[in-house]
Amino acid sequence: MTINIIDIAYTRLKTPDVAAATDFATRILGLEPVDRAVDRLSFRSDSRMSTMSYEIGDPSETIVGFELANGEDLLNAAKTLEALGYEVCYGSHEEREQRHVSEFIAFRDPSGGRIEFAVSPQIGGNGAQLSRDAGITGFSHVGLFSRDPDRDEHFWTQICNARVSDRVGELPLLRLSQIHHSIALVPADRCGIQHINHQVQSIDDVQRSYALLSQHKVPIVFGPGRHPTSGARFVYFEGPDGMVFEYSVGVREVDEETYRERQFGFEPKSFCMWGATPKIKELST
Ligand SMILES: O=C(O)c1cccc(O)c1O
Ligand SMILES: [Fe+2]
Asked: Could you tell me the pLDDT band of residue 215, with boundaries at 50, 70 and 90?
């Protein structure tokens, strides 16, 4: 039975320096801190109570959480994964509280990255109270490192319900809804999160953040530019422990009935139609 993912829900990051990462997530990225603790902190970027978090640990151990519709779908997902030989564990009470979800299961994707499927991410009555005027409207997609994009694409599109929107060389952009993509599979010799995308309200927010990031000497690793694939205008920058963050605006929505996947060449103009060149190893051609 196909695993029906509704949406991407959260990322959980680890860092040796929670204080520095918190400073970045609030003063630079602009997220709202929630559940402040000494060695652990959650953040929100939209109506959901936790869309990102930092805790003390090894930065290579990232987690991406996806939302499933209900407990029955979660149980079926666990059965499907176990039948395929995946090791599945259920989240404890404490872990569920940290994520603000009612239930979740955890397993490793075929490349070895930790993935969670969760039910009922809690919604806060008000939207996120951003820590600065970043214009963020919400957490939107991740890039996942993939040791074998063909194999991993099979997992996300055949075992789960993702659909290919576009491919840049061997890099597929996968959608879970009408939004052009929620997952990008980035060929690399490792696993886990390659980048975290937040949508912003307008191109002014992208430019304003570009200026602020430059003033704070945050490394800009791509852009400002425009993706021909999703149509989004973007800027990418580097956060703590080398994690890449992206702000973008204007990601296209696709019509499920009529949309056909497209193949782009693996070259700079497939990543940016304005002529910017990525300073990101895995996107360099
Ligand atoms: O938005 C996109 O199309 C896109 C393409 C390549 C890589 C990305 O991170 C993207 O967000
Ligand atoms: Fe992206």
From this structure: very high
Q: Does ligand 1 lie within 6 Å of residue 63's CB atom? A: no
Ligand 1 close to Cβ of residue 145 (< 6 A) = no
Phi and psi for 232 in degrees, rounded to 5? -75, 145
Q: What is the ipTM of this complex?
A: 0.98
Banded pLDDT at 67 (limits 50, 70, 90): very high
Q: Is 271 in the pocket of ligand 1 (CB under 6 A)?
A: yes
Q: Whose CA is nearest to atom 8 of ligand 1?
A: 184
CATH: 3.30.70.2190, 3.90.830.10, 3.30.2390.10, 3.10.180.10. Which one for 5-119? Answer: 3.10.180.10
225 lines ligand 1 (CB under 6 A): no
- Residue intervals of the chain classified under CATH 3.10.180.10 are 5-119, 136-283
Phi (first) and psi of residue 256, to 5 degrees: -55, -35
Residue 112 identity? G
Are the C-beta atoms of residues 164 and 157 closer than 8 Å to each other? yes
Q: What residue owns the CA closest to ligand 1's atom 10?
A: 227
CATH superfamily label, 136-283: 2,3-Dihydroxybiphenyl 1,2-Dioxygenase, domain 1 (3.10.180.10)
Q: Please state the atom number of ligand 1 nearest to the C-alpha of residue 228.
A: 3
**Which candidate, 90, 85, 86, places its Cα nearest to that of 101?**
90
